[in-house]
Amino acid sequence: MTNQAHAMYNVDLDQATQMIATMGHKRTILVQGHMGTGKSSMLKTLADMFPNHIPCYFDATTKDLGDLMLPRIAELDAGASYVSYAPNEELGIHHSRPVIVMLDEYGKANPAVKQGLTAFMLERRMGNLKLHPDSIVFATTNLGGEGVGDMLVAHQRNRITVVTLKKPDYMNYIEWGINNGIDHTLLGWVKDNPHVFQSFEDVQNPEDNPYIFHPRSQRAAFVTPRSLEAASDWLKVRDRLDDMSLTAALIGTVGDRAAMDLMAFVRLSNDLPTLKSIKETPETAKVPESAAAVCMVVYRTLASIEADWLDAWMTYLNRLPAEAQGLFANGVRAPKYAKQGLVMTNKAFTQWARAKSHLFAADV
Questions:
Q1: pLDDT at 81
Q2: Domain limits at 121?
Q3: What is the CATH number of the domain that holds 41?
Q4: Do 239 and 317 belong together in one domain?
Q5: Is 329:363 a contact under the CB 8 Å cutoff?
Q6: pTM, whole model, 2 decimals?
Q7: Which residues pair with 196 in a beta bridge?
Q8: Are residues 124 and 180 in the same domain?
Q9: pLDDT for 112
Q10: Which pLDDT band, with edges at 50, 70 and 90, does 147 fall under?
Q11: Neighbouring residues of 129: CB distance < 8 A, sequence distance ≥ 6
């Protein structure tokens, strides 16, 4: 029952960030989650939410106890001296303004560092020095089950609030990828291979999912949201690499099985119409034969659409299968779609939307 409750109440990145924004000035929240799922990105999100705060990144894995505070000699008026301590600048105590401190990879920190950070996490102080009262402190770490050294003893765990991130699914990643310049070929591959976002906790035999990290397998490379972003970077320069070099780079980034499958999609992308043809001759621009290639066209457009060729795209869209039109409709409706206002205020789109309203409930 306990494990079921934990699983039921895992939160996503937005929810975890809102929890920190709400209570991080008073209570330290430790966010634990799968590797490569964007935990570190919360610092930037919080900095955007609190523009008057100074973001401070503290990499706990690179510190020893002596890195938290260093002694310095101070003098009394009578000439006597005493030892004072200066805190590490990454903790932000020297700022007069409120700060947002992220203690990254806290679970992997040297045990002495964890002990040394106890008062900082509980009372927002190091020695006699305190953070600005409006400051926010939170920590991140990997899941203990991943076997990468994340461990807390009972008294450390009892001083903080620990929440677990749910692993994002493929649609979460696609929506994020459209807004963040992820290569459309990779997004199409993710759409066809949702199992690459499966949690190792749901896979008893590692061979049942050869794409993902599994603590019972010694895979040198595997698929995570982070490694997929790296693979996207390689795909964006594929015109400057031969197939062997590109494949080698992908193997070293997402693993051999994912790389081989992804390369099949790269070859499939040759079936895509050029953006130039859609912009200039939408009535005759090539419509791909495969469903996967059509998905790539839609994802490419969602990421790159601009006002000066939106009308042409709407003409071309009407030539695509209904499933692809539904994919575009739901992509536009996604709550965080960056170009939603641009598309939804276009006359051609609104006319199309009225005529094809049934597609807005399509399963994408």
A1: 83
A2: 2-164
A3: 3.40.50.300
A4: yes
A5: no
A6: 0.84
A7: none
A8: no
A9: 92
A10: low
A11: 87, 93
Rounded-to-integer distance, Cα 311 and Cα 346, Å: 8
Q: What angle do CA 343, 230, 221 make, to 5 degrees?
A: 135
- Whether residue 174 sits in one domain with residue 159: no
Among 140, 164, 188, residue at a domain's last position:
164
Give residue 2's pLDDT.
46
102 and 57 Cβ atoms separated by less than 8 Å:
yes
- Give the C-alpha separation, 80 to 263, whole Å: 72
* Strands annotated E in 184-298: none
Question: Which of 114, 135, 164 lies at the terminal end of a domain, its last residue?
Answer: 164
Q: Rounded CA gap, 87 and 261, in Å?
A: 50
Nearest to 90 by CA among 52, 136, 59, 62: 59
pLDDT tens, residue by residue, 165-216: 999 999 999 999 999 999 999 999 999 999 999 999 889 999 999 999 998 8
Using CB atoms within 10 Å of the CB of residue 140, give its burial: 0 to 12 exposed, 13 to 18 middle, 19+ buried: buried
Strand-pairing partners, residue 55, are 100
* Residue 42 and residue 10 share a domain: yes
Closest C-alpha among 248, 172, 113, 187 to residue 103 = 113
Q: How many CB atoms lie within 10 A of CB 137?
A: 27
Q: Cα(315)–Cα(278) distance, rounded to whole angstroms?
A: 9
